[in-house]
Amino acid sequence: MIETADGGRVWLLSGRTSGYALHLTDHGELLHLHWGPRLALADAEALAAQPPPPYWPFESPLDGQEEYVVEGGPRFARPALSVRTPRARGTEWTFEGAEVDGDELRLRFTDAVHRLGLTLHYRMRDDADVVERWATVAHEGAAGDPDLELLRADAAVWTLPPRDGWRLSQLHGRWAAESRLVRADLTPGDKVLGSRRGHTGHQHLPWVALDAEGTATEESGEVYACALGWSGSWRIAVQHLPDGRVQISGGAGYDDSGLLSLAPGASYTTPVFAGLWSPDGFGGASREWHAWQLARVIPDAERLRPVLFNSWEATGFAISEPQQRALAHRAAAMGVELFVIDDGWFGERTHDAAGLGDWTPNPDRFPGGLKPLADEVHALGMRFGIWVEPEMVNPDSALYRAHPEWVQHQSGRRRTEFRNQLVLNLAREDVREHLWEQLDGLLSSAPVDYVKWDFNRCFTDAGWPGEEYPQKLWIEHVLALYGLLDRLRAAHPSVDFESCSGGGGRIDLGILSRTDQVWTSDNTDPLDRLAIQDGFSHLHPARVMAAWVTDSPNTLLNGRRSSLRFRFVSAMAGVLGVGGDLTRWSEEELAEAREWVELYKAIRPVVQLGAQYRLRPPDGGLSAVQYVRGDDTVVLAHLQAQHYGERPPAVRLRGLDPAAAYRCLDTGAVHRGAVLLHRGLDTRLRGDLDAVVFRFRRLGEHPA
User: Fold this and answer.
1) What 3-state DSSP class applies to 109?
2) What is the DSSP letter of 358?
3) Threshold 0.85, pTM exceeds
4) 628-656, pLDDT tens digit by residue?
5) What local confidence, expressed as pLDDT, does residue 85 receive?
6) What is the mean pLDDT of the chain?
7) Residue 73, pLDDT above cutoff 90
8) Could you tell me which residue ranges the Glycosyl hydrolase family 36 N-terminal domain spans (predicted)?
9) Is 3 helix (H, G, I), strand (E, B) or coil?
10) Mode of pairing for the β-strands spanning 660-664 and 690-701
11) What is the C-alpha to C-alpha distance for residues 55 and 326, in angstroms, rounded to an integer?
12) What gap in Å lies between CA 105 and CA 1, rounded to an integer?
């Protein structure tokens, strides 16, 4: 709901439990009023009528107050907008008007010197507490006017209320160690997170959360959180200003070296920078993020994700059709619903230094193409999927030999290879069309149901010889990726897509609006995964979090040995997959795996679509996570190690009705909701790397 007051100069957006207010002063300054609990319109008017902060020498009265900070004028805060033309640099804007279109508010400004149009977009839906913000910058000059160089255009600036101090939460990591949660007091100055790698990056998820004075817990206290929907280089800056105020700005591009050059008539629309306020701690904020993504971001989110098998860890590059058939038969017998062949099925891809870019089946390995294998997989009752990495090319490939100019490179400089790969310049129209033809033809040549889309190489030599403004490739590569995915989904609506980037290197709201799930990490060690998955859940729901059961010992990273039970219960916290070499599993292991897959299918609607509660963090002892959907509750508990023979503590559940009874579907025991909430559940775990699944169903109110 959007309300206006003060002659159309105060705006109040109201969601399910929270509100957001802003106003335009008599001097044309757009100032922030409120972000927090729902307000009445009269409250917003009263805030707008309050006098400005008192004058303080050497400080700007606008800093920490404005809704969208521009470069120039009486400001010292970090600008969200920076433009340059031969005439001038900096911005001086004039308010042109407001427009309300359903649940979207649009505020329009112009700069007469730059002939610049700026529209700030706000959207808050009645059934959610997420505020979506983005901006559109347009060159409104006449033909023949000089281009406008857009050095920086953030999506939004978020202003927090005055508090005595703030604690910052962020998700950091590296390859095979993504999404790890860290918290620290926010000190004065700028805290800058981001990626200058051309993709979202393993190092930081584009999300921050702040709680006042570090007092919020998992289920109580005020939390402000922001997340950016962009799959390329990005920057989020948390500014702790000299007067103690805090603002958060964020958008595409890591620095201010330039985004785009806009010709007259051209425009740029930023990605969405979403924010929410929650009075219910970090868990309440997470559940709000999850519900919003399931309702508004993720395609067909109500469809449950299938149990998959991926052949990579079983075969590596030594792939062949007979071998894949053998794995498919074992996977089908286990209850797998989607069979995916990974790297090595195409071109001369017998190792990682050749074949990328040549998306046709290797004739020696698949003499009849992929269709015979896909048909057999379908006959076994499974769907069929493939792995691709379309944005990359090996120098040893037919594509590169034909078109060496198609990769990102700098004139006169060595073409740097990482993982024996170069990056195709998707900003080029000829590259985009070639990839469309290749991928559309591939998906039309065989009954492919699923595509694992990988991205294993960061940008380094991001050049475009011959292009007048080569810097634009950083933005246009991502827009081209989005366009290609949109086009493929429209042409092949039955095909699902997974975003992968060496594991969790491209996970964000932008890619999730075009894919069905993401590969969380290349690290499949079940113990490491508990922390990775815990951090991931602070922003994204289990419905998109792919998690595999692989072989023990874990050969990729640490050689750790773990039971099939522990591996399955760890992976059942998301979208379950299996990636081990099934031809080496014993009959006893295969039989046990069938039981775990059957159990996962029973709890899948609750895990993938339910409300998630992080009961105990995975910090060395007992950890647990709970999911609630309707009358059903699922608890996954893990014990890393038991010390001195002491029993692990009881796990207190959440989200239950204290006046109801709950039957454990595994033991038949009936538990009182109040007891589970306050005294807790005895998991009876013991030893090292033990795990258990509990299922409860609500029976009704207790008798008087």
Assistant:
1) strand
2) -
3) yes
4) 999 999 999 999 999 998 999 999 999 99
5) 86
6) 96
7) no
8) 28-260
9) strand
10) antiparallel
11) 77
12) 10
Strand-pairing partners, residue 386, are: 341, 451
- What proportion of the chain, given as a percentage, has pLDDT over 70? 99
Cis peptide before 367 (omega within 30 of 0): no
Strands (E), 30-165: 30-37, 81-84, 94-101, 104-111, 116-124, 130-139, 148-153, 156-159
Any residues with CB less than 8 A from the CB of 433 and at least 6 apart, and which? Answer: none
The radius of gyration of the chain's CA atoms, rounded to the nearest angstrom, is 27
- Secondary structure E strands in 338-429: 338-341, 383-388, 392-393, 422-423
Q: Strand, helix or coil at 628?
A: strand
Across the chain, how many H-helices and E-strands are there? 13, 37
* Both structure tokens of 378: 């379908």
Cα separation, 585 vs 600, in Å, equals 20
Tell me: pLDDT of 241 over 70: yes
**Both tokens of residue 556?**
């990729």
Look up 342 and say whether it is catalytic. Answer: no
Of the candidates 522, 525, 528, 551, the residue annotated as catalytic is: 522
The string of DSSP letters for 189-254 reads EEEEEEE-SSSS-SSEEEEEEEEETT---SSSB-EEEEEE--SSSEEEEEEE-TTS-EEEEEEESS
Q: Nearest Cα to 94, choosing from 78, 117, 63?
A: 117
Residue 536 has pLDDT above 50, yes or no: yes
Coil/strand/helix, residue 600: helix
Q: Which of 211, 343, 454, 528 is catalytic?
A: 454
pLDDT greater than 70 at residue 405? yes
Annotated active-site residue 522? The verdict is yes
As a whole number of angstroms, the distance between CA 515 and CA 466 comes to 34
> For the chain, what percent of residues have pLDDT higher than 90?
92
* HEC profile of 274-303: EEEEECEHHHHHHHHHHHHHHHHCCCCCCC
For 166, half-sphere exposure in the C-beta direction (CA atoms, 13 angstrom radius) is: 29
Amino acid making up residue 388: V
* 8-state DSSP, 487: H
Cα Dmax for the chain = 84
